[in-house]
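Many introductory courses stop at the sequence. We go one step further.
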Amino acid sequence: MGGEESHFMELTLLDGIVSLSCLALSYVLYASPRTSSPHNVWAFPPAYILRSTTSHARFLPAHSRHAFTYPILSLLLPLSALESGRLSLLNGLLFSFGGIYGRILGMRSAGYLYDDNGREPSIRKKLVNALRDFGLEHAGEQMDDAWILTMPSYCGLEGINPLTVYFCYRKDYPKLWIVVLEVSVFHVLINLRGSPHNPRTPDPQYLR
């Protein structure tokens, strides 16, 4: 009984931290100007907070059958603004990129796309390397920017993202170019949305 009460208190405390973080982040994003201005040093690039649910079900083997659904909070952010520090909030205390400690919400490159023990600090560079592994040798020169849909860490607690999505855009092609799906940890699916000459015909998908 004591273990159940302790677990309940931990969940309640974590829920409270997440709720307060979301409220603070929502207020800062709402209060911050969204367009650049020479008279406003607090101009803020576009960024989004998304609320959704994730579901899982296992049917086999029969003795391990189970299912669950739970809510998740995700951030949809442009990598260029994220890694340049333009999305940092309250001097990085509320949210910032580059680490998970010493801030309420945090993100870092470790844990994304492939395991390199944190040697590469840039998610964008790791994304380019992943695209090159799939045969897109000039991805670094071709990609304009990419948006990442993912879950941040909360007060240094970093869980497993059930799904991270990268929406990649090409410099000479204004429409969506490539979608990269990272399922759980280090399982990557790349979908080429089509070439500029034939955007209606997607190229084959590749799974690693």
